Amino acid sequence: MKRLRGGAATAVVLVCAMTGCTDQVTGGGSAGPGRTAEGGGAALTAARSLTVKGRAPRTGYDRDRFGTAWADTDSNDCGTRDDILKRDLESVRFTDGSCKVSYGVLESDPYSGKDVTYRRGSSQVDIDHVVALSDAWQKGARYWDPSKRIALANDPLNLLAVDASTNRSKGDGDTATWLPPNKAYRCPYVAAQVAVKKKYELWVTAAEQAAMEKVLSGCPDEKLPTGGNPTTAPERFHAN
């Protein structure tokens, strides 16, 4: 079984289905997308409950609309990127105290299934927005208050350390256009996208919802990830 990120877990259930086998966690500490969950079958139920609308134009999208990258919105004096590296890597080493991660190993990368070494300055590890910011922009975020966009961009529920080369093939794809090559992680990945879109009240396209249901129907007991930060960033943060 793959290791558990984000703290100890009290139970692990191995679920095998058409889309592959996935590890599900019940109990334990905070965790990344697909790691903390509640309610059997909640992911499929939630996917079916999402609002369905057409994709809006990408017009007006800019990364700056979501604030400065890796803002310390949880006020722990560490940037969001380092928070996720600390959460998801093993054998972590730091530069200047216990905040800036200088080295670590991403064991069993969720997207590719391989082990990936992180070295600061020449990293093969990306921090992926599970729901891409451009995709969010086209499905509701363009109408939000900036503080909500900043919150989405830095919410641990929507962030995952992954193999950089595999992640680059994703772009701003949704479930209908991109899934991890590692089939064993597809159910947790889709469940994480559903959780983020439900939490932030983003809509999905008809094709996207159909793709979500197709994946999650192969693992009908997949649970819905929970947790993360509030959906409004502290007032000191600003975005265009």
What would your notes on this structure say?
This protein is of the alpha+beta class. The chain is built from 7 helices and 9 strands; from the N terminus they run βββααββββααβαααβ. It has helices at residues 42-49, 80-88, 133-137, 146-153, 164-167, 186-199, 206-217; strands spanning 11-17, 20-26, 37-38, 90-95, 100-106, 116-119, 125-129, 159-163, 224-225. A 3-stranded antiparallel beta sheet has the order 4-5-6, with helices on one face. It has a two-stranded antiparallel ribbon with strand order 1-2. It has a two-stranded antiparallel sheet with strand order 3-9. Mean pLDDT is 87; it is low at 1-30 and 34-39.
Helical element count? 7
Report the radius of gyration as a whole number of Å: 17 Å
- Intertermini distance: 44 Å
Largest sheet: 3 strands, antiparallel
- What's the overall average pLDDT, rounded? 87
Silhouette: globular
Low-confidence parts, pLDDT < 50 over ≥5 residues? 1-30, 34-39
**Relative strand content:** 15-25%
Order of helices and strands: EEEHHEEEEHHEHHHE
> What is the number of beta strands?
9
Helix content: 25-40%
What structural class do you assign from the helix and strand content? alpha+beta
Strand order of the largest sheet: 4-5-6
